[in-house]
Design brief:
The complex is a heterodimer of chains A (200) and B (284). Helix content of chain A is 88%, strand content 0%. Chain A has seven helices and no strands. Chain B is an alpha/beta fold. Chain B folds into two domains: 2-205, 3-Layer(aba) Sandwich (Rossmann fold); 218-283, no CATH class. Chain B is built from ten helices and 14 strands. Chain B has helices spanning 41-48, 71-74, 93-101, 109-118, 132-144, 162-175, 190-196, 214-220, 228-231, 270-283, and strands spanning 2-12, 17-26, 30-34, 56-61, 64-65, 78-81, 150-154, 182-186, 199-204, 207-213, 221-226, 239-244, 250-255, 266-267. In chain B, helix 4 packs antiparallel against helix 5 (132-144). The chains are: A mainly alpha (200), B alpha/beta (284).
């Protein structure tokens, strides 16, 4: 699986510099939702890697190499988690620096919510991609992103409106954490099944 | 031992099917897989590499059942070059080497770098900027550098110029000097297969029409080129297929053992035999 994750990192390496600039810009913007967007974007990087795979028919080559279906599928999830984690950490670091400079408020709660949202996006959309491919799965992916971001944004905005609301936000965050874990636990075997079916 | 054994393999895709495919490639030999586009060569290769599951029948490679969990480890001993399936195009040769070093336990980085230099492949150039020939050369370098026992090559010499093709064929020949090394190669360049192979397997519309020793095949058939009237003297079953020879006469592929003693038949090439067999199948 290490080889497959390494491959995905190399594949999107050139995009990484644009991605870093994006994190920097979004972290500097005063809106909390904008801060979270970089993390949501990171959750989409596995689709970019999948699109490159499809274009070169990498799946066919991988199927004749010593990679198991589990490695191929789980590799994409791990790659997605790494991207989301790296984006969240970098974004928080930029925010912390900007906060120290006194230009804005530090918003780790929003970042935690965005991270959970990113995990949900990954868990819902990867099985769709493995089943239908990137082209057909793209519309479903945007729908999922819209729904997850809308929900996460609404919940996160509660955090800024009083103590009772903060308690509600914390409860919601726990629920979303649970949802992310359950979705991921269901999503991985489903993706493996879809991938096997697609490969014949 | 056979390096490859396919037994009564069937795989139905609806519009196309592999039908009752039984094929054995003895260890230490080179087998050429020939057939028209869409005959099922790539499908056969994917079936024997475990990339496709057959509807029925069994396949074993290097003594391991392709459907068994143990086959994953056996893939370490198989080097594969596929037609039109490559590494993602944003990668370069150095990155491909690092990925494969993390994939194969017996990856030989020095050997890989030696092939890159020998094939004149630029290490830092992205795959998308490679020509088809360069892509094939990189795929061959990658397939050889984990020291496999079996090479499975799908149109691996397509897109290469004759000089490089010759050099690659020499590398394949060297590879089979080890007595437990074998190659299955599909190609439309039949002259390459004639130079390289010990066995020729011919697929037509998803069926294996024959898998024969090349030398026996060349002994079995001859080319008749004369008048149509003279050809009619032969038993009908001696004539595989015929075509006008361009000088008012006919040219035909003839089974030597059914031709009268003393008949002058030209030596048939593998290309002649395959082309006439396809024509014969269409005329039948």
């Amino acid at each position: 699986m290490k080889a497959l994750i390494l491959k995905d990192i190399y594949v999107i390496w050139r995009q990484m510099k644009y991605f870093l600039v994006m994190i920097l810009i979004f972290s500097a913007l005063p809106s909390g939702f904008n801060n979270a967007f970089a993390v949501v974007y990171a959750a989409m990087l596995p689709y970019t890697a999948l699109a490159y795979d499809e274009r070169s028919k990498w799946d066919q080559l991988a199927a004749v190499m010593p990679y198991s279906t589990r490695d191929i599928v789980l590799g994409k999830y791990v790659f997605g988690w790494l991207c989301i984690g790296a984006a969240a950490v970098l974004s928080l670091l930029f925010q912390a620096v900007l906060t120290l400079l006194g230009s804005r408020a530090f918003a780790p709660a929003m970042m935690a919510m965005a991270t959970l949202g990113g995990l949900c996006i990954l868990a819902i959309s990867l099985p769709v991609m493995f089943r239908f491919g990137v082209e057909k799965g793209r519309m479903a992916m945007f729908l999922v992103i819209f729904l997850v971001c809308g929900t996460a944004g609404a919940i996160a905005s509660i955090a800024a409106s009083g103590d009772a609301a903060k308690f509600a936000f914390q409860s919601s965050a726990l629920v979303i954490l649970l949802v992310a874990v359950v979705l991921t636990a269901v999503s991985i075997p489903l993706s493996q099944r879809f991938y096997r079916k697609r490969m014949g | 031992m056979n390096a490859i054994e396919l037994s009564h393999i069937c795989k139905d895709f609806g519009s196309f099917a592999i039908q009752d495919l039984t094929l054995a490639v003895p260890s230490g030999t080179i087998c050429g897989l020939v057939g028209e586009n869409g005959a099922g060569k790539s499908t056969t290769i994917r079936l024997l590499c475990g990339a496709l599951r057959p509807d029925s029948g069994t396949a074993s490679v290097l003594g391991v059942d392709v459907g068994s969990p143990e086959f994953l480890a056996a893939k370490e001993d198989i080097g594969v070059v596929l037609d039109e399936a490559y590494f993602p195009e944003s990668l370069n040769a150095v990155q491909v080497g690092k990925i494969l070093a993390a994939t194969y336990r017996r990856w030989d980085q020095a050997l890989y770098e030696g092939y890159l230099a020998r094939f004149g492949l630029p290490a830092g150039k992205q795959f998308k900027d490679y020509s088809r020939g360069m892509r094939m050369k990189l795929a061959i370098a990658a397939a050889l550098s984990h020291r496999p026992k079996l090479l499975v090559l799908d149109e691996a010499t397509a897109g290469l110029d004759p000089i490089v093709r010759d050099e690659i064929l020499e590398i394949f020949n060297d590879f089979t000097r080890e007595e437990d090394h074998s190659i299955l190669i599909s190609s439309h360049i039949l002259s390459d297969l004639e130079k390289l192979c010990d066995y020729i397997a011919f697929l037509h519309q998803g069926r294996l029409l024959f898998c024969e020793e090349k030398d026996r095949l060349l002994e079995e058939y001859g080319i008749f080129s004369d008048t149509a009237a003279q050809l009619e003297c032969l038993l009908p079953e001696a004539i595989v297929a015929r075509e006008p020879n361009g000088y008012g006469g006919v040219r035909a592929l003839v089974r030597r053992e059914l031709a009268p003693v003393g008949w002058q038949l030209e030596r048939a090439s593998v290309e002649d035999i395959i082309l006439f067999l396809v024509k014969g199948a269409k005329q039948a």
